[in-house]
């Protein structure tokens, strides 16, 4: 979702800046402009003195300006923190029984779970991503692409009983919450003769 928000926001900001820059460029080069154009010639300014000072004496003006700017700063900080937050879990702490533990790369555990999920009958493709805030309590997001005639309930129970249980036990985790999404593979309609 963050990727979509990034693309939409960047697209809108780019479009606004492109339109504003194009309008100023057309006016600044002295090209003929239509009568409704906001600026009329080379020596025209973007904001006149009257436009810049129109609301300055109103009592509500400065609180609104400060509130809007504070909101923009908070949104920019939220966006920055969302960019820095890792979606994937880099490492998982495995209980080795000696009190120390060992670190296993998150991608390695994801690859093993993906391979085991893809080996299930009726699954054409699988993708696993480990998430979570702590390497002691990971969570898994699983996407299963099912073959056309596979039973979803059976595939889901086998995923939990086999791939997830094996990953949880091999990593020594007390629990491994899973969010599973199932999709059906597209296939051609069957002909009846």
Summary tags:
alpha+beta, 5 strands, elongated, 3 domains
Gist?
With 193 residues, the protein is an alpha+beta fold. The protein has three domains: 46 residues; 30 residues; 94 residues, 2-Layer Sandwich (Alpha-Beta Plaits).
3D architecture notes:
The chain is α+β, with helices and mostly antiparallel strands. The chain folds into 3 domains: 1-46; 56-85; 91-184, Cation efflux protein, cytoplasmic domain (Alpha-Beta Plaits). It is built from 5 helices and 5 strands, in the order H-H-H-E-E-H-E-E-H-E. A 3-stranded mixed sheet has the order 3-4-5. It has a two-stranded antiparallel ribbon with strand order 1-2. Helix 4 runs antiparallel to helix 5. The radius of gyration is 28 Å and the shape is elongated.
Describe the secondary-structure layout:
Layout: H1 2-28, H2 49-53, H3 61-84, E1 91-94, E2 102-105, H4 106-118, E3 123-131, E4 139-146, H5 152-171, E5 178-184
Parallel strand pairs: 4-5
Antiparallel strand pairs: 1-2, 3-4
Helix pairs in contact: 4-5
Number of domains: 3
CATH class of the largest domain, anyone? Alpha Beta
Overall 3D form: elongated
Structural class: alpha+beta
Q: What level of helicity do the residues show?
A: 40-55%
